[in-house]
Amino acid sequence: MWALNSTVVLSITPKEPIITNDRFTSESYEEGGNFISEMIIHDVQLSDAGQIKCSLQNSDREGSAFLSVQVVGKLSIPSNSLVVTEDEPCNVTCHAVGWTPLPALSWEIGVPVSHSSCYSVPEPDDLQSAVSVLTLTPQGNGTLTCVAAMKGLQVPESVTVNLTVLPSHLGDLDESGPSLPTWAIVLLAVSFSLLLILIIVLIIIFCCCCVSGREKKESDYQTEIRKSANVKTNKETFETKLKSGNENCGYSSDEPKTTKAASLPPKSYESSVPEQRSSGHAHQGPDHHQPASSSRPHVTFYMASPKKVRNVTLV
């Protein structure tokens, strides 16, 4: 009987084996007069690791061994082709993912170098993965090979990368990129300067327009306020004039001037007719005295101003 971790998984009889699990089969044969029985495990899993025991049903004799399960994972280098600078230190990384147990990682260097070293560490977040870092100073082109070896693995796993080494001045050119000609640099500098000046001018024009518009708006507002105040004042003055009236200083009455002219003593013009006096008749008594006007003709001119007519219109 075959038992895995104290569980019988296969029984063998003289006629035929008794299969308990399809993943476990047996093969029996004789060699040199000895009977040999082999157990074959199909689709090996990590849970198959443990103690395996082979025993005879009619005897207390048994044999046991410890079964270790190994898982071959993937081996990779981030890039298939590397370009480095001559005599400049560089690092090359190799990743082993999904291995149980972790393999032993090593490097095969196929390029001339002045110095090389490597180290391997497990990944902190994955117990089935490891990383190996190769540090070297190359001096020529060649290949680098990462090798993963594990006990029980007949052929080690490996991965190879091509390494291209550039001279120092070409490496500097490749890192910095192609340089622009002098005329192109000058043209770019002038263009950026003109663009900056144009932006500043546009900003100044915009600020001036904003200030001018604000002042015009304030001026229009103040003008409207003044107009409103003037209209209100004129309206009040006009209403007051309509109620109380206004004195017409240009009007003069004709009647006083006529009265004044009539009150003045009239100017007389005496004609040159000689005064006739009667010497032969005497006047007796005051009661028979005749005024001088009866004996002396007078012509009197009254100066009266022409009549003036003034019209007044109230609006």
What does this protein look like?
This protein has three helices and 17 strands. The protein has 315 residues and is of the alpha+beta class. The strands form five sheets. The chain has a five-stranded antiparallel β-sheet with strand order 3-2-1-6-7, with no helix packed on it. A hairpin with a 2-residue loop joins strand 1 and strand 2. It is elongated, with a radius of gyration of 71 Å.
The helix fraction, in percent, is: 25-40%
In which order are the strands of the major sheet placed?
A: 3-2-1-6-7
Number of E-state strands: 17
Note the gap between the termini: 141 Å
Based on secondary structure, the structural category is alpha+beta
The H/E string reads EEEEEEEEEEEEEEEHHHEE
Shape: elongated
Radius of gyration: 71 Å
Largest sheet: 5 strands, antiparallel
Tell me the strand percentage band.
Answer: 25-35%
User: Uncertain runs with pLDDT below 50, 5 residues or more?
Assistant: 256-295
Let me know the average pLDDT: 76
* Tally of separate helices: 3
Short description:
With 315 residues, the chain is an alpha+beta fold. Helices cover 26% and strands 33% of the residues. Strand 4 (24-31) and strand 5 (34-41) form a beta hairpin.
SSE map:
Elements lengths: L1 E3 L2 E6 L4 E3 L4 E8 L2 E8 L8 E6 L6 E6 L6 E3 L4 E5 L4 E8 L6 E6 L3 E10 L7 E9 L3 E8 L7 E10 L1 H9 L5 H63 L10 H9 L4 E3 L27 E3 L15
Parallel strand pairs: 9-15
Antiparallel strand pairs: 1-2, 1-6, 2-3, 4-5, 6-7, 8-10, 10-13, 11-14, 12-13, 14-15, 16-17
Key descriptive features of the protein:
315 residues, alpha+beta, five-stranded antiparallel sheet, four-stranded antiparallel sheet, 3 helices, 26% helix, 33% strand, elongated
